[in-house]
């Protein structure tokens, strides 16, 4: 692993360890129409063995556990995984918890019927390695659902949203584009079956304070949004009242792929 990648992963561990409980209670993570689609898209059964990568607050695992035989919740951060376990213990007994790096999974080839990863890959320094690992641990014909923020194709909008995310969260690496994800899927031997591209509204006061560490940092994020051009403000639907930002809208992609 490169020194830069190691530093990024240390930032992720620090960030998620410090704010673990916020990810359990986050409305952005705990709710969403994407969660309701998981069982249908993955076609899991009571015999299925599933894997959730970078589980965070465990919301995907909570959704899948009633419908599968076993589900493995993995995360790079011990404190995050421990918090998820406390959250999930009352709901299911078929969940196993494993500390794991998404880019180097501690599982054998052809192990899982279904793999998921939701609102996390923008923290990964080597997403192409992550996709290869997903393909490696999936059984032939196994399904993979990826859900994450994505960058628009327009380079100006791409730069704006990735700068925004980095100002708000120092562990952010990059929101990748659909074309990048599609290329990585193809190279890993995953066939894209279907996808939803949606505009996701974030309640700004909660969203910005989930990861920032001071009011000074919040003000820097505010300034980045409020100083944006009219075109950018319209694209991201930046809503503000008397200079107080209320909400923004960011692109999100939900994709279903199958191992060839």
Automatic annotation (TrEMBL):
Protein keywords: Methyltransferase, Transferase
Pfam families hit by this protein: Methyltransf_11 (PF08241)
Keyword Coiled coil: no
Gene Ontology MF, one: S-adenosylmethionine-dependent methyltransferase activity
Membrane-spanning intervals of the chain: none
Every Methyltransferase type domain range: 51-146
GO biological process, one term: methylation
Similarity field: Belongs to the methyltransferase superfamily.
Name of protein: SAM-dependent methyltransferase
Lineage: Bacteria, Bacillati, Bacillota, Bacilli, Bacillales
């Amino acid at each position: 692993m490169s020194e830069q990648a190691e530093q990024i992963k240390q930032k992720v561990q620090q960030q998620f360890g410090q704010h673990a409980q916020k990810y359990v209670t986050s409305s952005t993570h705990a709710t969403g129409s994407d969660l309701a689609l998981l069982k249908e898209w993955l076609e899991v059964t009571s015999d299925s063995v599933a894997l959730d990568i970078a589980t965070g607050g465990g919301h995907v695992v909570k959704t899948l556990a009633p419908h599968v035989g076993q589900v493995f919740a993995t995360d790079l951060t011990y404190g995050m995984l421990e918090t998820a376990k406390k959250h999930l213990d009352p709901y299911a007994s078929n969940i196993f918890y494993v500390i794991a790096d998404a880019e180097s999974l501690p599982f054998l080839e052809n192990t899982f019927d279904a793999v998921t990863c939701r609102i996390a890959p923008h923290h990964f320094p080597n997403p192409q390695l992550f996709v290869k690992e997903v393909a490696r641990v999936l059984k032939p014909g196994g399904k993979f659902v990826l859900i994450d923020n994505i960058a628009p194709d327009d380079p100006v909008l791409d730069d704006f949203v990735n700068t925004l995310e980095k100002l708000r969260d120092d562990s952010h690496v990059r929101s990748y584009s659909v074309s990048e994800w599609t290329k990585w899927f193809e190279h890993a031997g995953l066939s894209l079956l279907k996808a939803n591209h949606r505009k996701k509204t974030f309640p700004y006061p909660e969203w910005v304070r989930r990861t920032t560490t001071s009011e000074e940092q919040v003000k820097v994020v505010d300034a980045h949004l409020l100083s944006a051009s009219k075109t950018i403000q319209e694209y991201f639907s930046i809503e503000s009242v008397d200079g107080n930002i209320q909400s923004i809208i960011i692109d999100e992609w939900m994709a279903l792929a199958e191992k060839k």
